[in-house]
Amino acid sequence: FSILSLSHHGFFRRLTEELSQKRWESTPMSQPIPTATNSQTGRTRAVGIVGIERKIEERRKETEKNISEAFEDLSKLMVKAKEMVELSRSIANKIKDKQGDITEDETIRFKSYLLSMGIANPVTRETHGSGTHYHLQLAKQLGDILLAPLEERGGMMALTEVYCLVNRARGMELLSPEDLVNACKMFESLKQPLRLRIFDSGVMVVQLQSHSEEEMISSALDNVTDKGSLTAEEFAKLLGLSVLLSKERLLLAEKMGHLCRDDSVEGLRFYPNLFNSQA
Q1: pTM for the whole thing?
Q2: Mean pLDDT, to the nearest integer, of 95-124?
Q3: Region Disordered: what ranges (predicted)?
Q4: For residues 249 and 232, is the Cβ–Cβ distance under 8 A?
Q5: Residue 5 domain-assigned (yes or no)
Q6: Domain span at 144
Q7: Domain holding 190: CATH number?
């Protein structure tokens, strides 16, 4: 009992002393507990599911921003390309109007610059509609731009080569494979000097109307007879053609009975048909 009484007296004395001195008035108030923040951004860092959702949303917004900027740059590029086409067309017209003021060498050099820029006014669905009319106009333009390349390549080009050549010349106005095939099918109806040909293997080519099938067969037979035998790769090197077209020529000569084949582990090799030549 005496110990408890002593403790009570000590507590009472200390309480009285603190109340008289009022120390809480001179002690600064305690600071609020700081929340976790990101030192780099200054934003409150959320944790748990809320934090994950917030990060996903931030990434989505960033991705949308990047995509928008990318397409904005692409749109600017397309506008610039159209401006270049208009510029080339206006320069070409000035050349026609001022033939006397420009020397022949300058005209040739200038036209070569314009030609390297591609087709000045490509046929598009926006300018010529869709359907048959569009393919007819496209066929006319293809007939004009393919004539010289075909003559340089021996009168025949695979449709894949034509596709790459045409789209390179068209620049931003790319042509679909379907539209190319439909346009090439109209060469003969338009009486163009070109035609679309489909070999038995399914390979599609564009060739000159003047390109003789007999000449192709004769060329294949002469080269095979001269070398004794040839593969499609060897024949392609001799003629400077693609392996695909060289093989089709050899197969055509075989179909007509002028060549025969030896299909072994070494590959497909063609020989002169002695039964036909000695008959």
Answers
A1: 0.51
A2: 57
A3: 23-42
A4: no
A5: no
A6: 125-208
A7: 1.10.10.10
